[in-house]
Amino acid sequence: MSYHLATYRSHRGPRSAIRVNGAVFDLEEVTAVPNYATVLGVLADWDSADKLLRNVSKDLSKRQPLSHVKLLAPVHYPTAIYGAGANYVDHVCRMAEILGLPLDPDPHKVGLKPWHFMKPSHCAVGTGAGVPIRTDTMDWEVELAAVIGRTARNVSVADALNYVAGYTVANDLSARGLTVRPHLAPNSPFKYDWIGQKVFEGSCPLGPWIVPARDIPNPQNLRLKLTVNEQLRQDSSTSMMIFSIAEQIAHLSSCVELRPGDVILTGTPSGVGAETKEFLKSGDMITAEVERIGVLTTVILNSESCA
What we know:
The chain is an alpha+beta fold. The protein folds into 2 domains: 4-68, no CATH class; 80-301, Fumarylacetoacetate hydrolase, domain 2 (Alpha-Beta Complex), CATH 3.90.850. The protein contains 7 helices and 18 strands. A 7-stranded mixed beta sheet has the order 6-5-16-10-11-13-7. It has a 5-stranded mixed beta sheet with strand order 8-18-17-14-15, with no helix packed on it. Strands 1-2-3-4 form a 4-stranded antiparallel beta sheet. It is globular. The two termini are 35 Å apart.
C-alpha cells in the first residue's frame, strides 16, 4: 500500500497521520503503537514502521477527509534543518551573469565539498501557513527536502540514500536585505549574516507530507516549480543539482551524526527574486511543487500579523 506521512493539528496537539487515497488516518490509532503518535517516533523506528504502514489495517470509521484536516510541518519539529547553498547549475550561472562574474569551475574538479547553513527546527511551518514579511527583499526558494530515517555517520555516497526515509517539499524563505552587515567593509570576513538572512519565524515551510523514499525511484530527476500569485517563477529539475543528495548526505555525515528527523534542504534552482530584484510583499501566495510529492502553499502576511 502506498501512503504519505504527515502531521496534523488535533485537540490532543500535533499528531502523526498517514494519508491514503485522499483520507487521513491517525497513526497511533491505526497501528496501536504509542510511539507512532509523532512523526519523530515513526522515523526513530523507520525500518519497522515503513513495513508496518504499508500493511496497516485501516479503521475506516476513523478516517478524516483531507479537506477537514489542518496539516502542520510533516516533521514537528525536525531534529535539525540543514540547507544547501549554491547547489543548482542554472541558479549559479544566472547569478554569475547578473553580477558580471566569471563562472566558477565545477567544484568537483577543484576538490570542493558541499556547503550548508542551518535553521532552527521551530522555523518549520506547514502548508497553508502564513509567514509575516521580514524585509522588503524577502525571497522564495523551492527545494526538494530529504528526511533522514536512519542514523548516519561517515556514510559513503554509494550508500547515502539508504538513510533517507522520504522526501517532502520545502520553501527556503530568505531575507535578502539582511544578508550583509552594512557597517563592515566589503572584504571583511564578518560581512555576511546568515542568521539574519535565513533564520526568522516561518522561514522554512515544509510539506504537505513525506513521500517514502522507496516511492521516489530517482530523486535526481524530479521537476520543481514555484509560482507567486499564480505567476511562474521557478521551473527546473533536481537533475540540475551540482552536488547530488547522496553527496550532500555523505559530506554532512562526515562532519556530524545525522539522526532520524533531520531534514536536508538540497538547494534551489534559477528563478529566485534576487535574480530580478522582484521580491515578496504582504498578501502574496506562494505555491511550491515537486513532482511525485505534492504542493506546498505559503501566504505572506504583513509584519504585524502572526502565522
